[in-house]
Amino acid sequence: MNQRVNKYNQPIGEELPGWQKRKIPSNMYYVGKYTIVTRLSRTHTKELYNAYKNSHPSNWTYLPDEPPHNYEVFEQTLLEKIESSTHIYYAVLNKETNKPLGIFSLMRIDQANGVIEVGNINFSDAIKRTRMSTEAHYLLAMYVFEELQYRRYEWKCDSLNAPSIQTAKRLGFKYEGTFRNAVIYKNRSRNTSWFSMLIEEWPLHKQALTQWLTEENFDDKGVQVQRLEAFKQ
């Protein structure tokens, strides 16, 4: 494909005729094979507290929050998330029990440019490293790309957060670089690693995720037969 140039013979980007700013994320209720993703609400508070109470405190190392020790404090923190004007939070539910096992949010919402970030990912031990966790990200990405039609989906994390980096790459996000001294949280400095997925890349990742999530890809103990990477080859 030839590079587009303007009348001054300068290279310019692809034209986007008819582009319109994207909608703000809102209520959604997406049902997968194992998981439900829906807008976070007060009804999720008690079950989330129980799920987090039974999770290892190391899960909060790279989060701005601390592990919950008091229900009233946790309830207030969750209420602030629900009422946030900048972050739209969603709960991840076990489809069999309808109980919430974690949350994540859509944030840094740039409607004009069609850019959005997934963040504040806090999955309890009951969902971590399970097909429910992968499917939750699959459902949220489907919402971002197919319903909201955003063109760039971002993932950012502490550059020392190896599990988050591994998850981002596994799902198909591409590493773009590290912003040094980008954030201060919990009285310590953070270098932030940036990843992204583009709307034109989504169909390939969706196909791989769909194949990986089939029941045939798991044994009777829920262990995967083939890794997700195998479906991208």
UniProtKB/TrEMBL annotation:
Xref: InterPro entries: Acyl_CoA_acyltransferase, GNAT_dom, Ribosomal_N-acetyltransferase
Keywords of the record, alphabetical order, are: Transferase
- Coiled-coil ranges per UniProt: none
Where does the N-acetyltransferase domain lie?
39-174
Gene Ontology MF annotations: protein N-terminal-serine acetyltransferase activity; protein-N-terminal-alanine acetyltransferase activity
Q: Does the keyword Transferase apply?
A: yes
What PANTHER family is this protein classified in?
A: FAMILY ACETYLTRANSFERASE, PUTATIVE (AFU_ORTHOLOGUE AFUA_7G00850)-RELATED, RIBOSOMAL-PROTEIN-SERINE ACETYLTRANSFERASE
Q: Give the protein's recorded name.
A: GNAT family N-acetyltransferase
Q: Which species does the entry assign this protein to?
A: Virgibacillus profundi
